[in-house]
Amino acid sequence: MIGETPLAYDPQFEGPIICVKGLRNSFGDFVVHEDLDLDVRKGEILGVVGGSGTGKSVLMRSIIGLQKPDEGDVKVFGESLLGRSDAETVEIRKRWGVLFQGGALFSTLTVAENVMVPIREFYPKMDREFRREVAKYKVCLSGLPPDAAPKYPSELSGGMKKRAGIARALALDPELLFLDEPTAGLDPIGAAAFDSLTRELQQTLGLTVFLITHDLDTLHAICDRVAVLADRKVIAVGTIDELLAMDHPWIQEYFNGPRGRMAAPKQG
Ligand SMILES: Nc1ncnc2c1ncn2[C@@H]1O[C@H](COP(=O)(O)OP(=O)(O)OP(=O)(O)O)[C@@H](O)[C@H]1O
């Protein structure tokens, strides 16, 4: 029985960090996913791509427990999440951080207070001063200047808001980071800087990253593998070179179309 399985941290666990099997999601008659499978390996940055409306965000929401699938199983860190209560999954939820599309910061809270929200939620007894110190450290880790901590989201640029969102996602020292279109709306320099930050954090903190993006430059610059959503499922997962060897029309159009060719590293 699901509710009786202990949720213990298993440092020896070497399987996929995320394992999705036979996932089905629908809204009324509209089926978004059908029989979708996906594994995310420990320590990789997995890019998730697909046309608009193919269900990338719904997939992420299913993995983090915000969308209840019709069918299928989702395991994170080897633990099945479906059918468990919030109280039962709290130990797993502590181990991931999420950057939602647009940052999703609380507009009435400062950057530091935003970072403190998950800390207060999961460690309510933590000393207030210590909580502040942790928040300040996470703000620095996200590449924001220290004077950004007392600012409100409305006082920040788009790129700074994303970094504040990252600071909050890192609040609990996660092992797994979910990023939903982190470079959308950033200028090319800001987007490249955000890519570097993601790679740096992944390498220095040993993170696994589930990264939804439309940004071809991001895919080429930092993704170890790419999963392609189409026809309601993950139709392919691999390095860009492996995907290029497939003759699926959407994959060819995406990576070998004019924009895809421009984003590809130049040969020779
Ligand atoms: N709560 C909801 N109620 C009804 N339909 C929804 C809901 N959430 C998502 N959908 C629908 O599910 C489909 C997949 O949505 P999703 O946001 O996952 O797409 P996406 O691949 O992330 O798109 P984009 O690249 O444009 O962000 C869309 O057709 C969307 O309208």
Quick structural gist:
This protein is an alpha/beta fold and 268 residues long. The protein contains 10 helices and 10 strands. It has helices spanning 56-63, 86-93, 111-122, 128-141, 158-169, 188-205, 216-222, 240-244, 249-256, 258-263, and strands at residues 18-27, 30-40, 45-50, 71-76, 79-80, 96-99, 176-180, 208-212, 225-230, 233-238.
User: What's the gyration radius in Å?
Assistant: 19 Å
Count of alpha and pi helical runs: 10
> Biggest sheet: strands side by side, in what order?
6-7-8-3-9-10
Oligomeric state as shown: single chain
Describe the global form: globular
Structural class: alpha/beta
Order of helices and strands: EEEHEEHEHHHEHEHEEHHH
Mean residue pLDDT: 88
Percent strand: 15-25%
Return the domain count.
1
How does CATH name the architecture? 3-Layer(aba) Sandwich
Report how far apart the termini are: 57 Å
| Bound ions, cofactors and other small molecules, one mention each | adenosine-5'-triphosphate
Main CATH class: Alpha Beta
What's the main sheet like? 6 strands, mixed
**DSSP summary, beta strand count:** 10
CATH T-level topology: Rossmann fold
Record keyword descriptors for this entry:
single chain, 268 residues, alpha/beta, Rossmann fold, six-stranded mixed sheet, four-stranded antiparallel sheet, 10 helices, 10 strands, 37% helix, globular, binds adenosine-5'-triphosphate, ABC_transporter-like_ATP-bd, ATP hydrolysis activity, AAA+_ATPase, Phospholipid/cholesterol/gamma-HCH transport system ATP-binding protein, ATP-binding
